[in-house]
Amino acid sequence: METTSNFNYYQVLDVSTDAAQEDIYQAYLRAKATYSLANPELFATFTPQEAVAWLEVIEEAYSIIGHPNTRKIYDKEITPLNDEGALPSFDFKTNDSETSYEDTNPSPAEEELPLAQGHGRTPLSTYIIDKNMEDLIAKQDIFDGLFLRKVRNYKKVDLQAFSNSTCIALRHLYAIENNNFSVLPAAVFVRGYIIQYCRVLGLPEKKVLNSFMPLLRNG
Which burial class, exposed, middle or buried, applies to 182 when counting CB atoms under 10 A from its CB (0-12, 13-18, 19+)? Predict the structure, then answer.
């Protein structure tokens, strides 16, 4: 099956891979309403052209996973993307030493263990809470790629694991974290990448997008 999008279609519609067809349909309707040109809040972070491009991706996603037969074919094709033989759920919860790419790979069972006192957890890691770092994140106004990398390293999220779970190519993650905006794809796609950063790292989506997207456009 040929597709034109680099996104995981379940990610596009923000549903889990085991979602019922009715849930996928409802998610499709919500996504269309959210990115409709009639939504006045959309243009805080999107240009009309970007919104139209994203709506096309939404339509493509639903044309595949919105129908049982094509969904089965698609599921078989994307299954190898996950080491455990199934794609990860993108139903993450969101919440309102920094330059190295060397991180600790979390254990697959780590998420099931009780969280030790003074530790925090992301969907991909556990880490020791640093109050100074937490205060810095809370007060931060400029969220560029360098700061996203700083937060990722602080929260011990391995870049390869992040790439695997979000289906974002490593080259794009490296480009984001080095503010190498010229090699990134269209802004509408980068916006999706930044949302995944927020969901994995527990950062406020609106605040991060409102900071990062103008940097991308002016970079």
Answer: exposed
Distance CA 90, CA 178 (A): 25
Domains of the chain from N-terminus onward:
9-81 (1.10.287.110), 110-218 (1.10.260.40)
Summarize pLDDT for 15-24 with one digit per residue, the tens: 889 999 999 9
Q: Under 8 Å CB-to-CB from 72, ≥6 apart: which residues?
A: none
pTM to 2 decimal places: 0.59
Going by C-alpha positions, the residue among 1, 5, 10, 4 that lies closest to residue 196 is 10
Tens digits of residue pLDDT in 105-118? 444 434 467 888 99
Ramachandran bin of 14, using left for φ above 0, alpha for ψ from -120 to 50, beta for the remaining angles: left
Say how many residues make up the chain.
219
Q: The tokens 């103008």 sit on which residue?
A: 214
Which whole-number Å values give the CA distances from 7 to 78, 101, 105, 176, 190, in the listed order? 11, 24, 24, 17, 11
CA torsion 81-87-89-94 (nearest 10°) is 0
∠ CA 72-171-63, rounded to 5°:
25
